[in-house]
Amino acid sequence: MEERLMESARKRKKARKRARSFLDCLRKFATPAVWKQAQQARKMARRPVRWRTQSLMLVLLTMTWCCGDSLAERFETARAFCVVCQPRRKRPGQTVEGFQKALARLPTGVLRAFAAGLRRQISRIFADRLPVQGFIPLGCDGSRLECPRTAELEQRLGTAGCDGSAPNLWVTALVHLPTGLLWSWRLGKGTASEREHLRLLLPTLPPNALVVCDAGYKGFELAEAILAAGSQFLIRASSQLHLFVEEGVPLEEFREGVVYYWPNAVRRAGEKPLKLRLIRVKSEKSKLDVWLLTSVLDAARLSLATAARFYRWRWENEGLFRTYKRTLHKVKLVGRSVRAVHREAEGSLLAVQVLLAQGTLAMPVPTAQQPVAAPCSPRQVLREIRREITGLAGCRGSRSFRERLSRAQRKRRVRTSSKVKRSWPRRCDHKAPKPPLLRELSEQQKTLIAKYFNAL
């Protein structure tokens, strides 16, 4: 009897792991525990509500995935899909106006609680795919989202960039670089500080995280905050950084070594410097080398080649924003109030996270010969999701949704021409950062540094 029970339990476990349909794949990430966490974050009114939390968020996610020329058309498709997914539950409202009013009353804490639950599921399901060379590399970057020119948005969000430009919303996102998975994000006004956003995102970092950023994320306070959070960083250095070395070395001969980050304000306050490692990556195509500043001092743990590969993967941040803006048509948001814009952005970013997670789940498992799995193609994953939503999957043969997703791999081609085809209006030419400035420590400074680090 016990053997039969164990055998049936194993069969049920295998059936759960298959996740053959779209709903099965969706339930692997949006588990009952995740929905319960989102429900607990919502303070329900005493009177009965037409839009329950699960129906409201499911329609919000589906509206980001499905096709439609207007908001009302996408709502009808999303609502029909929600009714099919929840046949035994009370049907949601029938009008898009009622949906928008219910969404405006939904606290943003519900969306963030749902995102936290998804993040835990992603870290559990992809526990074997996240680490690379002992680190979990996460790239950080930001981008602006254009909003409608309503009086409320112009007053509350303001403009960023040129005078007379439309209101903007700034989003800063953390992306798992090997897979391209969206990890966490932060929203703000168009003039928000992306360094401050990264500091606020530090509690979402997993253990052994390595934050990879460009030269815009400089700053002594930010570097200290990353280290205080138990993580490491790999940031591109520029001429705005003044670093100290124990022995003077000509910049042309410098390859790799220990440096001290000790700004003037920190020295005057009597605080100790940060002991870091500066890496120079030789460029094969241009004369401008890439200078990387990292908190990992051990070269055996983070070699020059690994650091160069991690920073080259940072392009996945740009790929995420391209997926969000172009593939999902979120170049301009449609909400006409601050509440609507924030909820639209939060919901669409959740939809991108679930889309990429489903595509990554269907990719081949990394092996010893290929330790880093091939990333998925967001466009192909979105096409398969749309087929499932509109009921066209039956025309694709007997293959399941999971099997069709396994073929949605990103194509890798060797680039033979420049990425820039022509000059675009209002776009400034990119100028590569110049090398950092290296200064030799004085004898007094060497004594202070020895006193600081020997006292530890």
Q: What can you see in these coordinates?
A:
The protein is α/β, with parallel strands linked by helices and 456 residues long. It has a domain at 17-43 and 107-241 and 273-364 and 374-406: Transposase Inhibitor Protein From Tn5, Chain A, domain 1. The chain is built from 17 helices and 10 strands. It has helices at 2-18, 22-29, 32-40, 53-65, 71-85, 96-105, 108-125, 151-156, 194-201, 220-228, 264-268, 304-312, 315-327, 338-362, 378-390, 401-405, 443-454, and strands at 136-146, 168-176, 181-189, 209-213, 232-236, 242-245, 256-261, 274-281, 290-294, 437-440. Strands 3-2-1-4-5-9-8-7-6-10 form a 10-stranded mixed β-sheet, with helices on both faces. β8 and β9 form a beta hairpin. The longest helix is centred in the last third of the chain and has 25 residues, at 338-362. The termini are far apart. Mean pLDDT is 88; it is low at 11-19.
